[in-house]
Amino acid sequence: MPLWVFFFVILTLSSSSHCSPPPPLTLRMRRYADAIFTNSYRKVLGQLSARKLLQDIMSRQQGERNQERGARARLGRQVDSVWAEQKQMELESILVALLQKHRNSQG
Questions:
Q1: pTM passes above 0.70
Q2: Would you say the C-alpha torsion 71, 73, 76, 82 has a positive or negative sign?
Q3: Distance between CA atoms of 99 and 105, rounded to whole angstroms?
Q4: Least confident of 4-8, 10-14, 40-44
Q5: Which DSSP category does 1 fall into?
Q6: Residues near 22 by Cβ (< 8 Å), separated by ≥ 6?
Q7: Rounded to an integer, what distance in angstroms lies between the CA atom of residue 50 and that of residue 36?
Q8: Three-class SS of residue 2?
C-alpha cells in the first residue's frame, strides 16, 4: 500500500469523527433543560445542607446554654445551701450565747 493512501485513510477516519453532524434541535433543547434542572437541583440541595448544618449548630449552642444555665442553677442552690447553713450556725451560736447569758444572770 502506498504511503499516500495510508495518510488519506487516516485523515478520512480522523476528520469524520470531528465533523459529525450536530445533534437535532430537540435533543439539544432537552440537554439544555436537563442542565438547568441539574444546576437548580444542586443549588437547592446545597441550601438544604446549609440549613441543616445551621440548625445543628444552633441546637448545639442552645444545648450548651441550657447546660450552663443548669450548672449555674446547681451552683446557685449550693451557694444558697452553704449560706443557709452559715446563717443557721450563726443563729445557733447567738442563741447559745443568749442562753448562757440568761443562765448566768439567773444563777
A1: no
A2: negative
A3: 10
A4: 10-14
A5: -
A6: 28
A7: 21
A8: coil
Grid cell for residue 65 = 446554654
Residue bearing cell 470531528? 18
One-letter amino acid of 21: P
What's the grid cell of residue 70? 443548669
**Tens digit of each residue's pLDDT (9 = 90 or more) over 33-55:** 888 889 889 999 999 999 999 99
**Dihedral-angle region of residue 39 (phi above 0 means left; psi in -120 to 50 means alpha; beta otherwise):** alpha
| Cα–Cα–Cα angle for 96, 100, 103, rounded to 5 degrees | 140
> What percent of the chain has a predicted confidence (pLDDT) above 70?
79
d(CA 9, CA 59) in angstroms, rounded, equals 69
